[in-house]
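Quick one:
INPUT:
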């Protein structure tokens, strides 16, 4: 699962995607490839709440940790609830025992922050030296409610400078795949009337296409980060490499795995 990265360049192929903007910090947007899980969880499922075999989950998460040079015991996650709470990470906790939150920030090397997604946007953050990092889970609810801004604010409290923060939106469902109803559009606009440009006419009457990654990038830029970009990789459209809630729903339901995105402070 090892990959090299050219300085400052995105790498969008293979089992791990890396962002040039985050080159100062060990990180990876992991795909579903390279694990040991079977059936609907094949193969690098990393969700502790998915119903997958616990032994397979432990091995998958260990592979992820080692791929960015971390101890498996130091790959940390929270219980994601589509909210805006941010955890300041200073020490490891047991797998599956993270607080109810949707983002983490850290300024201590040796700890890896992981967010789980299967269409929602994983967003990884780093200052220019990789000394202060963050990871956020941003579905439409969290993004509209302010989880990204809350993550930036928490990084600033740890000593980061907003204008020095680089944020990258990883693989998620993109506009052409993300058809939503008027109720969802109304819910987003009730929280953020500036979101209107990110809804365009849907493929069906009375529906809209929502551009989640572009919306996240716009929120990040409004928050004053120095650089905000999206990888532009669609989870629904790439079944070989990504799990997708929407794909599972369109297929009639059933069990599903989740990919993980991870970042850690640099050793400087």
């Amino acid at each position: 699962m090892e990959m090299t990265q050219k300085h400052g360049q995105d790498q969008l192929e293979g089992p791990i995607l890396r962002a040039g903007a985050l080159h100062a910090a060990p990180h990876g947007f992991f795909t579903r490839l390279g694990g040991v899980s079977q059936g609907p969880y094949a193969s690098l499922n990393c969700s502790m709440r998915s119903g997958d075999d616990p032994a397979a989950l432990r091995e998958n998460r260990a592979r992820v940790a080692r791929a960015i040079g971390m101890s498996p015991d130091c790959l940390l996650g929270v219980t994601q609830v589509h909210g805006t709470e941010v955890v300041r990470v200073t020490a490891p906790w047991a797998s599956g025992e993270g607080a109810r939150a949707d983002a983490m920030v850290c300024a201590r090397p040796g700890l890896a922050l992981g967010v789980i997604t299967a269409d929602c946007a994983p967003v990884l953050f780093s200052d220019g030296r990789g000394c202060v990092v963050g990871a956020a889970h941003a579905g439409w609810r969290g993004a509209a409610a302010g989880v990204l801004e809350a993550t930036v604010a928490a990084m600033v409290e740890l000593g980061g400078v907003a204008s020095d923060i680089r944020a990258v939106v990883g693989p998620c469902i993109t506009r052409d795949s993300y058809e939503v109803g008027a109720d969802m559009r109304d819910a987003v606009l009730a929280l953020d009337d500036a979101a209107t440009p990110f809804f365009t006419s849907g493929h069906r009457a009375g529906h809209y296409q929502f551009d989640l990654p572009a919306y996240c990038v716009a929120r990040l830029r409004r928050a004053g980060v120095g650089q905000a970009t999206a990888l532009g990789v669609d989870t629904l459209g790439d079944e070989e490499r990504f799990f997708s809630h929407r794909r599972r729903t369109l297929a009639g339901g059933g069990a599903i795995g989740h990919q993980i995105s991870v970042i850690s402070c640099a050793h400087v």
